Structures are given as structure tokens and as C-alpha cells.
Amino acid sequence: MKSRVLVVLLFSILYIAPAFGYCAEGHPFIEQMEKGSINWTEGYVESKGIGTPLEKHSGKRNPNPKALRAAKQDAFHNILEIVQGVRIDSAITVKDFSTKYDAVRSKVESMAREAREVEKEYLSDGTVVVTMQMSLRGGFAQLILPQDIKQVDSIKAIIPAQKTVTPKSSVPSDNPVPALYTGLVVDARGLGAKAVMSPKIFDENGQEVYGPTFVSREFAVQQGMSEYVIDLTAAQNRPRVAGTPLTVRGLRTDEPGGSNIIISNADASKLKSAFEHLSFLKKCRVIIAVDSPESKTQNKAALRPHGP
Predict the structure, then answer these.
(1) For residue 55, what pLDDT band results from cuts at 50, 70 and 90?
(2) E-assigned strand segments in the chain
């Protein structure tokens, strides 16, 4: 009886521990689910499975094939449940999408069964704990991402005709050459923004400035349409947008989805000021900084009424 209590306690710790993983290097945004977690920075879901040996094997540290199979089967069910809850956009989850199409549901289940084993532990009583991960990119993204994300040809620069060179004037130009940016960082902290596989960004007039129609499917499938992190400075220095990223402040999110972000018209105009910007958007060089799991919990607590 005591050994079973210890197993339950250990397994609970193993589930809870990833919740503090967002403090790790790179400040990943990890959304905790009942059966595991979604890493929205690196693009994968993770869960643990547990396999308990038969009584006759209890107390033996030797690998137990049946317990191992049970652990993997448990991890598969957990991962499948997490994946079903992944938000595709502001209105649809993977479960919503796969329920409509049997072929999609079958492929999602097959991908969950092929999840990668990243850790395996044998406990003293013969119990096996297996950690599995399934990527949200590659084949899964190809299956799930909206069909309006097309393969986009390379954007060619339009070379202006040669003009006569005139002496430089000391008077500042009314039309300065726009800065060239290497990526887009959206500061959505404090907005309660939800992570999705297909985010959209709008200006104040409701005009879309980033979304499925702006990206090439090749890049969206390989690396996701965006990364989500919980630290603005970390976001600005990540390889995805390395160089001189344009940082804009999110004004609010739309409801009820809470994933589409509205930015100011002034910031939106910077994205439209040069064809080079279309190039980095096409390559999905976008990072969104959101609230940490801890800050969300604190915000909810602050909103609760106090006193009798």
C-alpha cells in the first residue's frame, strides 16, 4: 500500500514539474493541460505515461515489458487528449476539425501513436514512467493548418529606374527610407492572448496585417506560423527574428477567441512600408510575447472578491 502511495506522489510531481519550465533559458511558453503540456515555443506536446507491474513482478527493478507497454499506451492516450485540445485558430480546435473528417481523425491518432519517447524511468517497485513528445510541426501542421495557407513564390524586388544623382541637401527628407526589419515581435503581455497554430494580427480598422494569407505553407509547416514566449527581451533576441526585429504593442485581443491581436494603425503601416517586410512575414519570422502561466494565475486571483 505504501509503495503505491509513493508511486502516485511521484507521478503527481512529474506532472507538476513542467509547469515551472517556463523559467528555463529561452523563456518558452508552456501551457499546462490536465494530462500534460503544450510547448508553444518549440511546437510540441508532451505527456507522461505510467505502467504498473503485476503483483508478481512488484519489487523487481528489472525492466518489465508489460509495464513498459502499459506506460506507452497511457502516454499515447494522454497525448491524443492534449492534441485534441490544441487551438488551430480563434474558433476551432483540433478536436473540432478532426470530428468533421474521419480521415483527419485517423491520421491524428496515428501521429499520436508515433510520438517520440524522450525519457524512461524504472521505479523500485517495477513501475515504468515514460515521457513522450509529439511535434505540432511537419506532418501534423501540414494536416491541420488552414488550406488558405498556400505555397508562396519568392518575392522579387522591384528595381526602380535610374535617376539623375543630385547633391545631398541638408534639409531632412519628408519621405525617409523605411527601416528594414528582420522579423516581427508582438508584445501581447497583459492581454490574456491565447496561443494558436494560426494566429492573425489586425490593425485598428480590422484590416489583417498578418495571418494565413501572408505566409508560405513551406515555412508555416516547418516552423509554425509564430513562436510564443513569455519574455519580451528574449523574444527580440531569438534566432527566428535575429537582427533588427520590429516590435509592436498589442492593443487588445478580439473576443470570444482571444487569440487574434489588434495593433495600432501606426505600427501596422510600418509593416506595409516596404516589400522586404512581406518577405519576413512570408517566412513566418513572427514571435508573440504573452503572459506567463504564473502571471495569469495571479491576475485571476486579483479579480476574485475578497472578504466576506
Answers:
(1) low
(2) 30-33, 36-39, 44-51, 116-122, 128-135, 184-187, 201-202, 208-210, 227-229, 246-253, 261-263, 286-289
